[in-house]
Design goal:
By secondary structure, this protein is an alpha/beta fold. It is built from four helices and four strands. The protein has one domain.
Length: 108
Amino acid sequence: MKNKAYDINNYIFNKEDVFMLDANIWLFLFPAPSSSQYSYIKKYDDFAIIDVNQILDDFENGVVDFTDGVIADCCLRNNWKLITDDGDFTTGGIEVITTNQKLITGCR
């Protein structure tokens, strides 16, 4: 199922919306430091309910790449909207907010 894409410049943010930021957005906002050490603590509980078999089937059939499938599955299960600049994130049945015109066009 195609994603529904919104141009971030025209999107009306709602206080009830919950967003997941794709890695490319984090890297735009916080580029990697060149000479510092950081320790990160991550919580992976949300990934325990992922439908890995469906994601693998979609990956095998060329529908999605694996990480896009995981992200889409998490967004679907949690009713999250994805903010991304990934131009090929056109399938998954989720709502996507972006400035990437290729993505907006591909989701039509």
